[in-house]
Amino acid sequence: MNKESDPKILVFSTNSISDPGIDLAGGAHMHYSTAVQVVPLPCSSGVKPAWIVHAIEQGFDGVFVAGCGGDCAFLSDCTPRTSAVIKKAQDMMKEKGINPKRLKMSGICSVCADNFVAHMNNFQNELKKLDANENG
Amino acid sequence: MAQKRRIGVYVCHCGGNISDYVNVEEVADAVRNDPNVVVSRTHMFTCSDAAQQEMIDEIKEKQLDGLVIASCSPKLHMFTFRGMSERANLNQYQYIHVNLREQCSWVHTNDKVGATKKGIHLLRAGIAKCELTVPLNAIRIETKPRVLVVGAGVSGMRAAISLADMGLAVFLIEREAEAGGWALQTGKMGPEAQDGTDVVAKLLTRINQHENIMLHTSAEVVSKSGSIGDFNVSVRLPGDETVSLNVGAIVVTTGFEPYTPQTDEYGWGAPGVIPLKDFRQMLAEADGPLMHNGKPVRDVAFIYCVGSRQLKSESCPEPNSYCSRYCCLATTYTATLLHDLEQKTGQPVNQYHLYRDVRTYGALEPIYEKARTGGAIFLRWDPSNPPQVTTEGDQLTVKAKDHLLGGEELEIGADLVVLATGMRPRENDTLNDILKIPESKDGFYNEIHLKLRPVETMIDGVFIAGTAQGPKTLAESVASSLAAVAKTGGLLMKGYVDLEPLIAKVDTDKCIWCGECLKACPYGAIEKVNVGEKEIAFVIESMCKGAGPCVPVCPHNAIEIEGFRDDQITAMIDASIKELETK
User: Fold this and answer.
1) A110 — contact with chain B (CB < 8 Å)?
2) Do B107 and A54 count as a contact with CB atoms less than 8 A apart?
3) ipTM, 2 decimals?
4) B146-255+426-497 adopts what CATH topology?
5) Do β-strands B194-195 and B213-216 pair in parallel, antiparallel, or remain unpaired?
């Protein structure tokens, strides 16, 4: 059940790998918070660090990059490339005084529905703790 | 926002799949007065013929230049609505699909208020993206009615025949001196007792008689240029002669390599420890009782899953974690052949089959049954406790803990230990460098999707089949090569192909050529060109896959993917977080 206090998460998914995995959570009628919203892209190696920072600056509490992982149909080294994007984004976040823990990445395969839901729940809990620390 | 747009918004009930959990009327109401929205309404089923016709009429009547439909996952109906847009004379790339079912109503069945609010955000993000769409045209490429098939094993030969039957010209090339591949060495194969050499001979006769097929053996691909529909491939023939082939598609059927055990793995290296293939050879050649080292063979131990389903360990840092699929069939079938020999010669042979799981699936189960009822003893071992093979003189001993006897240790004296070795990806470094087909974690060629697009690769116009994409039985290999034939025929028989225009685009003002995008692109889709005095990056349309690894590495923000442009994604983020006006 979503509460007004649920941290807002923007998810970057990928058309052929993680988006089907996230769709499957729907197909299986699993539940996660309505504060999670997905923007699909072709491949997680193409996420621009500036988009991540922009999302946080606009009010998202966290950004989750649902990477193609080892299943990427485009790139065999998709994961290290996506990691490089994450690293760059975290550097930019630090420069702007944003806690880099507000960004998370994990490979979500095309059948990783449970995994995705678990990630969303855990990430929201971590973000709640971060908020408590930063405000308290 | 640059320009005033005329966008139509339709929200789908999906019967109740969406509207039971999301207040679709409220979602449609929320955006109705947005500046660029001309019409916003709901439909019970947007995908129904009637609803599509109503939308087409409205798009034409209201002269809409953008369309957003919030319904199920785009995997289901994005292409439906793209087609509908075209029928309404609306550019299909100005249609945006919003996933209101799989990513909203179905995951929030417990929170209608929250789901409705999220639905409005999702729809707003879709509208924000739609506002920034530009009309695009598919990239149309003329295709050549010729195919190159690489690898003349059974898969490749079978593919060549069916392609040629369609009227396509086929070049079938084989690296070895002889066509046929591993089937030449299998002998009789279960379940139908066909002999591999007979299968190959029959296919070869058809190939040699077919006027549309040109077979080259001892031939190798040395270079490739061009792209889907129009590849130029150089092939080296014996005697260092090189021919250039112009083909519309390439089918890769390069097969597998048998796993070779490491020294000492299940006694490998000791006399009497042999791979299944060699044992089959002994059986085929036996014209009396089976002999080894001048003595009749009385006890044979078969060890399954050698080189397959391995666990990671110090001695095996890069395990083959996959099942090789053919070995259970081949080994249980061997058991039945050995029974046949026993019957013929009257010499009894004790068979011990040390297995992990017998995977004789589908119609292969009767062979396993025949092996058991014929007297073969099946013992199950646990992967944490694999069988140990030791030698003393010429006596082999296999120690195994039988799972079904509660871990009781058994000692089996054997004259022969036969290892059912699995499949490995074929070493093809040169070809891999040339074709750049992505590989899976296991090292076999990777299809786009195991179930939905099983023979297509990320390289448009390059198809894979047979064991080159993973272990298969011969029947499965042929099934996949016929699938590749269907896909290749579908591509080439039409005479042209339309490619997605959602690909990389260079901002010629911002680009100052640093080469980062070239380094990031695995497809060779970036070229350096001169525009006047300036050097800039140029995207080769037919090679670009629109994946976007070039986007974040550009230090000048000079390259982006159409349909996922910087301004579009930023606008989507803004629309996703914008506070909703409270009524």
Assistant:
1) yes
2) no
3) 0.96
4) FAD/NAD(P)-binding domain (3.50.50)
5) unpaired
